Here is the input.
Amino acid sequence: MKILLLGAEGQLGFELRGSLGCIGSLTALGRAECDLARPESLEQVVRAYAPDLLVNAAAYTDVDGSEAVGSPAHAINGAAVAELGRLANAERFGLIHVSTDFVFDGEARAPYREDDATAPVNAYGVSKLAGEQALKALEAPAIVLRTAWVYGLRRKSFVATIVRLASERSELSVVDDQFGNPTFCRDLSNGIAAIATILRPDPFGAATAHRGVYHLAGSGVASRYELAKLTVERHPRRETLKVRTLSAIPSDAMPLPARRPLRTPLDCSKVQRTFGVALPDWRDALERALASL
Ligand SMILES: NC(=O)c1ccc[n+]([C@@H]2O[C@H](COP(=O)([O-])OP(=O)(O)OC[C@H]3O[C@@H](n4cnc5c(N)ncnc54)[C@H](OP(=O)(O)O)[C@@H]3O)[C@@H](O)[C@H]2O)c1
Here is the structure.
């Protein structure tokens, strides 16, 4: 199986280079080789590599930056994804695309299921939803994986930021009214590779048969504060950290350009039923992630 990976320099893309490299002949492209801000350039790239499966881990992920006038969020997360869907149909390859819990407004009481109403509260969520909707309208052979709160320690992420700030400051304030599924990028990458392995005998046919949205995120729910607290507590060299006080504050006390949805836990039972894939508990994942520090 020839696999083309886009977004290979991102935190998820970096992990996917390893996990997808084990199951097929992988070409991994970063922004320099394949720029999603220029959707019209994608056809040439896709034709040059003629993949059986394309995995899109590229995205404009700056949630606050997406609010700015002239932000490339819509081109990269919306228009480019539509073009990938069109090409998947025309060139007959399967597509695995990654989306987000931020397509929801965060007001639900129960974990979100795939067919629950979407209502993004910020421009990033709107742009990611546009990508999803384009793939649906095109009936593209696309497995859309909505994930949440993705972190690694290589690049900027919530957990990486807490690790850095905890070594610089004695007091930290973290919001305690936002809840979601922390997802270690290595576990997510392994889950995506497991799905790709199931598609392998016939990526276009299997992605067509199973096309649609699936939720795939770490098991268990945490608040940002709980995630930060465990990050500090389980840091392998905790005694070297400067932080002494971790305060829980409401989101209102930390205004940012983009509003965040408050509760976006995802019900991941459909991906387990369909592909037999479930990601480990977030606490276990965090310990494994921190062990690599
Ligand atoms: N991080 C989260 O909390 C989170 C939560 C839910 C869903 N997701 C989704 O998960 C996927 C992976 O995100 P991630 O966490 O790995 O984020 P990331 O580390 O920011 O990776 C995104 C990658 O896309 C690249 N990119 C940006 N603009 C591009 C362009 N015009 N053309 C080609 N590549 C471009 C980035 O390159 P540069 O480094 O050069 O900018 C980066 O390498 C995305 O679809 C994201 O929407 C993430």
